[in-house]
Amino acid sequence: MTFDFTPLLPAHVPDPAPRWTGFPEYNFVGGHIDDATVPVDDLRAAVDRALAREGADLATYGLQSGPQGYRPCREFVARKLKTYCGIETSADDILLTSGSLQGMDLVNRLLLQEGDTVIVEESNYGGAFTKLRALGVNMVAVPLDEHGMRMDALAAALDDLAARGIRPKYIYAIITVHNPTGTILPLDRRQRMLELARQHGVPIFEDECYSDIVWSNERPPALRALDDSGMVIHIGTFSKTVGPALRVGYINADWPVLGRLVAMKSDAGSGALEQMMLAEYCPDHFDAHVRRCNGMLEGKLDTLIEALDEHFGTSIEYRKPPGGIFLWVKLPEGVGTARLAAVAGAQGVAVNPGPEWSLGADADNWIRLCFANPPLETLRAGVAKLATICHEEFGVPEISGNVKR
């Protein structure tokens, strides 16, 4: 007889996860990257050099660098933030984390409690929604347009909350290669967001997970680069450039905040080998690696768009994003993407339905497609199968009218 733990579990504990049985044949979900871009040989050489030089330091927690993480890795992050984001900072204001998700959890633990209010973009990272709901936090959604979060809507939301005596704990924003829309917020809107945040005394939680993946390799300065008051907490990651499985992310904030986050990070430190490897590899290779990845990813996006145009025709809407690994696609009225995702998933085509990524009224008309990991032929075949499933379930697209002959 198996012991039943159920009566002992607190009310907030989720249901058991299903056992993992492998990736679906056509996998358009998750934040996976192209396995061909992982610099395996260079990473092997980097970790070998680092271990030969400092491997004995594995005997101590923190690699002689303390609780913020391996100092040479933090020093590279500081240089990367200056080069890519315009942030003037130092290794002393960097905390290395087990992916940016741990950074998000730490910031939420620091600032939030049940009943608090935060401002989010209406369409946003589904994991952020899940975490906030689990904490019992109220989310005020601000709509986006083709340039990102609308500042008129943000101003109205802040004014409305102030009139009701509510001070949000933060504004959560993915403004450089937004997930899922791919937008990059223009400089004037960034400056306006900071102005509004200062007026209302609300800090900004800036998530820059995808900000290195820009086809032009050009982007506006980060909010933290534009702010001199310390009101912006900035997180990022190596997951979308070098490899998600490395689980190396970072937080950049002024010490009064970062010091509290360090105190709360009670896991005895994130993975040491990964930090050593990145610190050895990145100074000489990161820039060229990112440019190579961006070229390959834009090519994959073009292939995805060609397949969608061929098989879905004018029945769908999308904007080609300026970077990232996702395409946000709107299907016609009458196509419920939650239903489509369930039916397609049972047939080996995994897509993210809109309600997981949007709080908007039309969320169920959208799907998010990750194009980074599947090979080109898999992208094409997967889109063709998804179109067939959508046609069989909802009558759209009219397949015969879309396929090129």
Describe this structure in words.
This protein is α/β, with parallel strands linked by helices and 405 residues long. The chain has 2 domains: 23-38 and 288-395, Aspartate Aminotransferase, domain 1 (Alpha-Beta Complex); 40-285, Aspartate Aminotransferase, domain 2 (3-Layer(aba) Sandwich). Helices cover 41% and strands 13% of the residues. The protein contains 12 helices and 14 strands. It has helices at 40-54, 71-85, 99-111, 126-134, 151-163, 187-200, 223-226, 255-264, 272-312, 337-346, 376-394, 399-402; strands at residues 26-27, 94-97, 117-121, 138-142, 144-145, 148-149, 171-173, 204-207, 232-237, 249-252, 326-330, 349-350, 352-353, 366-370. The strands form 4 sheets. It has a 7-stranded mixed beta sheet, with helices on both faces. Helix 7 (223-226) links the parallel strand 8 and strand 9. The longest helix is centred in the C-terminal third of the chain and has 41 residues, at 272-312.
Summarize the structure.
The protein has 405 residues and is of the alpha/beta class. Helix content is 41%, strand content 13%. It has 2 domains: 23-38 and 288-395, Aspartate Aminotransferase, domain 1; 40-285, Type I PLP-dependent aspartate aminotransferase-like (Major domain) (Aspartate Aminotransferase, domain 2, 3-Layer(aba) Sandwich).
